[in-house]
Amino acid sequence: MDPAPLDKKSIAAYIQSLHQLTGIPLGKLQRYRTVGKLINALEHPYALELTQKQLLKVEQLNAFLQSHRVLQWGEENAKMKITSPDLAGSYFSAFLSGLRDRERFMVAFLDNSHQIIETRIISEGGIAEAPIYPRNVLKAALNCDCSSVILAHNHPSGSLKPSLEDIALTERMVAIFEPLKIDVLDHIIIGGTGYASMAQLGQVPKAAEKEATYEMITLKNQEEPEAYLPVLLCESVLDEAVMEEEWER
Asked: Is Acyltransferase among the key words of this record (predicted)?
């Protein structure tokens, strides 16, 4: 069911609060409301032609909202178990959803019951790419004494299609962790407010297909979302119960 639209009083209160927190003129916010979604004032502030001071205020507000979502999620899921792609996607969305100005690569380290031991930001890059050093992932995994890992990163463009580099990194992580009996359960891609599971897409190998290497690999962001992705999902997604059963083994 779609949520009920906001009433005029709520919209007016939102505009007033945004004005007070950022210094963006009320008239500009009112005009922007008529040509686009008001929430985009935070996600795409450059569209409003703001001053440097106003842009800085918007960045600070976005950082606060991001931190709040993460802290709220942490309190609600302090001892969370990730036992399915949907849970993994929801979990990483709290960290990566709406992140449009840079690409961030993260890893969740899990114990043998799939409870989160720790989640770390491994690398951050620019809007189009992020350098990943596999040794850093391996070092963090050994420090956590984990049994499995879930990889995740965002595509600032909003695309949910795995790039060739995304696939190559996933295969490399499987090859690195296989001798240590550490499972790579999934690689989650966050785009906008959505997410895709490479495990559901059949792009996380069950066993190493190539020899492990440790050279840096650069994740590159897809520029345009691909319309055929839902078709791939329909063809390759495993039944949710089957996927959960595999993760629980």
From this structure: no
